[in-house]
Amino acid sequence: MKDSAARRWAAFAVLLVGAFLPPLDFFIVNVALPSIQGTLQTSAAELQLVISGYAAAYAVFLITGGRLGDLFGRRRIFLLGIAGFGVTSVLCGIATSPAMLIIGRVIQGLSAAAMAPQGLASIHALFPERERARALGFYGAAVGLAAVAAQALGGALISANYFDLSWRIIFLINLPVVAAVLIFGLPLLPEVRGDSPAPIDRIGVLLCALTLGLLIVPLVEGRELGWPAWAIAMLFAFPVVAVAFWRYEMAYAMRGGVPLISVDLVRRPGLLSGLTGVLFFYVVSAFFLTFSVYLQSAVGLSPLETGLVFLPFGVGAFIGPLTTPLAIRLLGHRVPAIGMVLEIAGCVLLAAVVAAAPGTMPPQLALIVAVGLLGFGQGWALPTLVRSVINRAPTTGSGMIAGITNSALQISAALGVAVIGGVFFSVAGASPDPRNMARALMVAMLCVAGSLALAAILSIVAWRSEHASNTRQ
């Protein structure tokens, strides 16, 4: 039994790398953009595509990645995904033109979408009920730490300029990690798949990708390019295609097929509210973007110094998930909402200390408390919110719901950067001074707090809906 327990935890440690690398590579590029622009002579729009191309591909195909794991085995899809992630990391690291880098990033996002859902979906199969809370705690810590580690690691690697590689090292550093995962993953990972594999819903995959792409791409790229006609047209087309996708999935299920997204599964009590809450939750990604820009542009910190400011978030994001089993025993279903309330307090405190002294470094203690609250709240809310959504699905649909949940998180991150980031830059103005930058950061933090408040309310609504359904049965 002990050997079996050790083996499943070792296998889960391998799968956690698949949860850690995608957000790491999403955030780490932010600190490298000036170096990339100097080397490859990229335009502002091309720089935006380096980030958004990855984010859009990742978010759009996460649901498909979860479904592929159900159909063809999560071990196989995970290993194929991480191998592809390694190959595309090389492509990005040796890029000699903006187009080559953008293409590499898009394919890297596709590879990430294949490997990321497999760890979350495998928790049901790997662990008995008593160990799932701890496993999800480690999962939440890995995802939460990735965003913070990206800031500090990216700044440190670029500043050190190992082997005179400059920004290229942030991609090539993935290679030894990928090699280690492939070496240890092959013998450790069990083959797990859905109980009733069925042919993949190809038209559903295309319609899903088109639906999400019509929303994400214009919101990420529209402001940067001055809202061209194609971006407006895509936004108007989004609800039309979304309805067509939903109706197709219902018709496909009625014909006896297994749809990409099961309409009946999503309609389970509390599941839709929970997923909507996830969609509002991960806008904290906008905190990293806006606070990084403020610290470098208004306060004058270096990329490495900026990364170090986020360390309290990392500490909180690591400690929070490890304490969630105790928190769940004491506070039950309220833990996700309480975690988000802590994040809201961090946002409000940060806005207040920045307002008190625009353009200067905030008081150290207040800054540590504000950023630490954001991290600890995230560490409580993320794994428990994800667990509440996954647990509402049957084991046979865990891969599908894991893909949908991961996709909702990444869509939330992409939209947080696009929408709240757009608000930040609009308030800051074309030639921002420290006071305008401080005002912009305050507005951005209040936007993040408002979105988290909605997510907290929806998490409570989801529990009440499920509880009421269970009571009636």
Order of helices and strands: HHHHHHHHHHHHHHHHHHHH
Topology, number of strands: 0
Q: Which outline best applies?
A: globular
Beta-strand portion reads: under 5%
Oligomer: single chain
Structural class: mainly alpha
Tell me about the largest β-sheet: none
The pLDDT mean sits at 82
Q: Termini separation (Å)?
A: 36 Å
User: What count of helical segments does DSSP give?
Assistant: 20
**Low-confidence segments, ≥5 residues, pLDDT <50?**
none
Proportion in helices: over 70%
Radius of gyration: 21 Å
Structure, described:
The protein is mainly alpha-helical and 473 residues long. It is 81% helix and 0% strand. The protein is built from 20 helices and no strands. It has helices at 2-27, 33-40, 44-72, 74-93, 98-126, 129-160, 169-172, 174-188, 202-221, 229-254, 263-266, 271-281, 285-299, 303-309, 311-322, 324-331, 335-356, 364-390, 398-428, 434-472. Helix 1 runs antiparallel to helix 8. The two termini are 36 Å apart. 54% of the residues are buried.
Features:
single chain, 473 residues, mainly alpha, 81% helix
How is the topology of this model organized?
Layout: H1 2-27, H2 33-40, H3 44-72, H4 74-93, H5 98-126, H6 129-160, H7 169-172, H8 174-188, H9 202-221, H10 229-254, H11 263-266, H12 271-281, H13 285-299, H14 303-309, H15 311-322, H16 324-331, H17 335-356, H18 364-390, H19 398-428, H20 434-472
Helix pairs in contact: 1-5, 1-6, 1-8, 3-4, 3-5, 3-9, 3-19, 4-5, 4-8, 5-6, 5-19, 6-14, 6-15, 6-18, 9-10, 9-19, 12-18, 12-19, 12-20, 13-19, 13-20, 15-18, 17-18, 17-20, 19-20
